[in-house]
DNA sequence: GGAGCATACCTAGACTTCGAGGTATCTCGG
DNA sequence: CCGAGATACCTCGAAGTCTAGGTATGCTCC
């Protein structure tokens, strides 16, 4: 998930690690930013894997910076990840939201395909949190305030996403200018 | 996070692993249920740690079942976890939602404290996804449909939770019947 | 001029969860 | 009676992330 975010942010910008770290924290809404010990070793691995390159710069505020940019392989890797159906079938919901943040880098048809897959997931998966067998649950079915809150939050999130998915499919359908 | 969910579900019920697995999947809304290879070894570790015990039962549908129940230490562990301020400061948002699902096991005053901490987090953390410096962002600030969707979903989720937090604090304040 | 703080990067070990396999039991259809 | 499928549990190695330490630079305030 982290590597997807890194590829996404570097796709059209040149950033250094410290900056990247702040942007990732903002994107994922994490309470604490991701740990240094997570980000920097990953950047090294990605560099070793030929996905990005770094240039040392003097550093405008304090210590010298390692400015990072994607290689051609790195840009291809992002586009492949964005198109990959497996990115949806992941335990961590954050994964899909990170993907959403960078789906703009894909041309309409493959982006539409990703949105369609996501919608299909909602329609076919029972989403068992919201159902008791065939009966849709209501907040009143929970006898404590806490699960009622959890239910309200989950419902709001799902409803908003479904609404957006519907609108998006209408917008995207027909407008096919294949680039990626 | 998984162990918190296990403690929560077993607090007032006796379940076997397979059932637990389905409930956890439903609770966290994970696309794929958690892997067997994750759950069963964890259950063994928790048993070795004295948090739960198992009894073998013949199995009503198929293979024999290992019925699990919490020990006194296990129940104490859950209450401690629910009260632990650190459970909020975790990168994974799921953590807080799992906690919310079982907060009913706490008496009012400590539950209220957890809710207060969560609200404080929203009010003090810049929540940088929603702000450009001091200016609140709007959907129109994003020039692609995908980030607009992401923004809409994040906004709906946050707004719903903040509304619930406000209501809950009104409900809980004053009603102090200390049990846990 | 030195203490404190933000910037900027790094290492090593540990923990959690995943992925890909495997075994055994029971029911039901053919 | 045998194969398919759901139930129910298990092992082992790999991947991803965290925790807890560390180094070095430049600014600001006293």
Automatic annotation (TrEMBL), chains A, B:
UniProt signal peptide: none
Domain Transcription regulator PadR N-terminal: from-to ranges: 6-78
Domain of life: Bacteria
InterPro entries per the UniProt record, alphabetical: Metal_resp_DNA-bind_regulator, Tscrpt_reg_PadR_N, WH-like_DNA-bd_sf, WH_DNA-bd_sf
This protein's name: Transcriptional regulator, PadR family
Organism: Asanoa ishikariensis
